[in-house]
Amino acid sequence: MTAASPSEQDLIQRSTTGDSDAFGALVQPHLGLFYNGVLRILGNEADAEDALQDALISIHRDLPRFEGRSRFSSWGYRICLNAALMVRRSRVRIRDMERPDPLPLGPFDDRGHHQESEHGTEWQVEAQAHLLVEQQEMRAVLLRALDELPDSHRIVFVLKDMEDWETEEIAEHLLVPAGTVRQRLHRARVQLQARLRTYILGGRP
Amino acid sequence: MRLMPSCHDVQMELTEYLEGTLPLRRRLGIWLHLRLCRVCAGVLRGLRALPLLARQLLGPAEPVPDAALRALARMQQKQSD
Fold this sequence. Notes:
A: mainly alpha, B: mainly alpha, Arc Repressor Mutant, subunit A, 0% strand
């Protein structure tokens, strides 16, 4: 059984025969998803627009090979992420060459233990538990924090924690050892956790 | 190396711990530490919660940005050239 709806199937069929309007109608409902995925990896709108254009060309080219085993949106989204990674490889990022900041952990005493006891560190994982205005603030803080991460760290966080890629798969795409992926992921997680801390820790901030 | 690592060491290795890539002795040391230290256990819960929270905050459908529509228009133009 295929996951694509008949109308989507029809649009796919027409797109493969060169119907440009059908292709537009096919991808239009997913453009926001595609664009935001690419933007999160690349971090700037100009690169994201270029990468999305490349991705749409690839999607159009590869449509005859789409077998409908997954949803079209998932299949297309993955092509978009790959296009973003390709664009990233062709860019030299100054921010990536900087020495990483110390992680916002601690404070620790001379033996590496906490200097003061902290209590009430229960995370409220359900975003719905927060008021709408808080959610909007958290969203803005998270976007800013993601933007401030070095590209190499943000990409790993997006692929692993938001897109559920396997560590080895990320390592293969980024051409780095899996240990490096885990190291970058940890740095990204700790930095983001520190930025969101006042919003997501229950009880006393 | 002591069996039970410090808070600093634990917090530096939590992602490796979650991924199951640490040697057995180290895993055991961190496991034990997490049962005795509420602060480090809280940091671990935070790391576990972060992906879901990020997906919830950034996941909802947004209006299609103009840049995405421009990319589609440029792509269609290219295809028709």
